[in-house]
Specification:
Number of helices: 15
Helix content: 40-55%
CATH class of the largest domain: Alpha Beta
Distance between the termini: 13 Å
Strand content: 15-25%
CATH architecture of the largest domain: 3-Layer(aba) Sandwich
Structural class: alpha/beta
Oligomer: single chain
Number of strands: 13
């Protein structure tokens, strides 16, 4: 039996976004949802909600359905799946786009219970390394196609058992637009004439801000103009404040807490630092590159897919404060290197990480997943 193919513009899409709290996954999924509105027949979102992106989607009149957040725990997944059944019966999507493995499982169970013929596309935004093998198995069982946000992540999933023909890579989009002059930001933090290091990321073990603090402690005695801003939110904020005191970095380091102007702060930096233990391909890194800020980052997971060491940024081993300090010092000491790294970073980000490129990439994936489902003998209409 054969069924009519369908162009991307004819597809109905349901985004399953675990939450809409501030974070990279949430920002990417929201940006994609808004980008799809004029390019598909219909797009809706099922989510547990949260600030600030619930308001963003509501303001743009995107249809929202509240579901329990699909944590990878039986009770959460069962509740989310049951609620998604009702959404599928109402929306009748052609493609369900699930963000991360928990959402993929809930979508797969709900599709079966609702007797839906929708294709499932899952985006793997990244999980801790010790959970990667399980994530690959879950995604392979639940999804028609799996998208990773960096080539390294795609390779990892395939190595862990995801069939290569069911894998794809779509880079996250970034098009940052600062709204404040850098001089204003620097004045706010009493850093007008400083050597300013900035990092943006949640205060979690993954981001390993302790390594950055240790590196700054190595630099501070010889660099009286050194200042650093650690922008983010998370459960380790008090721990980082305490560590700053222990390292005698008061007056050097500011733990800003949550900020709505992280882009402005990044744009004011002399160098952007990333000290993570693991990453997919972090938005904060891509945004710094798009802004033309030279980057020093740990060479983990998808980061080397964006940073070519010595060309458009500097890479250092993870958990090595000495190497991080040396790389930061190298950039701060060399005006020409700083300009060259920033210029090449911007050129790479503009070519690889536009919103148009990300949206087009997902439209192609949706069409492929729909066709794969059609060829399997399931009527996806």
């Amino acid at each position: 039996m054969s069924f009519a193919t369908r162009s991307p513009a004819e597809l109905r899409i349901l985004q399953v976004i675990p939450s809409l709290w501030m974070g990279g996954l949430e920002r990417v999924a929201t940006r994609l949802t808004l980008g799809l509105r004029e390019r598909v027949a219909h797009v809706a979102v099922a989510t547990a909600g949260g600030d600030p992106f619930t308001d963003v989607l509501r303001d743009e009149r995107v249809r929202l359905y509240r579901i329990v957040r699909p944590y990878p725990k039986p009770l959460h997944l069962a509740a989310a799946s049951a609620q998604l059944v009702r959404v599928l019966r109402r929306e009748r999507p052609d493609v369900i786009h699930a963000h991360n493995p928990g959402a993929a499982v809930a979508a797969s169970v709900a599709r079966r219970l609702a007797r839906s013929h929708a294709a499932i596309v899952s985006t793997y935004h990244g999980v801790p390394p010790d959970q990667a093998a399980r994530a690959a198995r879950v995604l392979a069982r639940s999804s028609d196609l799996v998208v990773a946000v960096a080539p390294a992540a795609t390779r990892t999933l395939v190595e862990l058992g995801l069939p290569e023909e069911r894998s794809a890579t779509v880079l996250n989009a970034v098009e940052p637009q600062p709204s404040r002059p850098a001089e204003d930001v620097r004045r706010e933090f009493d850093a007008a004439d400083s050597e300013l290091v900035v990092t943006v990321g949640r205060y979690t073990e993954q981001k390993n801000h302790h390594v950055l603090l240790d590196a700054l402690a190595l630099l501070a005695p010889e660099r009286p103009r050194l200042r650093a801003l650690l922008v983010g939110v998370g459960e380790l904020e008090e721990d980082l404040v305490l560590r700053t005191t222990e390292l005698d970095l008061e007056g050097v380091v500011t733990i800003t807490g949550e900020r709505n102007d992280a882009i402005d702060i990044t744009a004011a930096a002399d160098v952007f630092a990333l000290s993570s233990d693991w990453e997919g391909l972090p938005l904060a890194l891509l945004e710094a590159m798009a802004l033309g800020i030279p980057v020093v980052a740990t060479a983990v997971n998808g980061v080397p897919d964006a940073i070519s060491d010595g060309d458009n940024g500097l890479l250092v081993p993870r958990r090595d404060p000495q190497a991080l300090a040396q790389a930061l010092s190298r950039v701060l000491d060399d005006d020409e290197l700083r300009r060259r790294l920033g210029s090449r970073a911007r050129a790479w980000a503009e070519a690889a990480c536009s919103e148009a490129a990300m949206t087009s990439g997902y439209l192609g994936v949706y069409a492929s997943a729909f066709e794969r489902r059609r060829r399997s003998g399931v009527n996806p209409s």
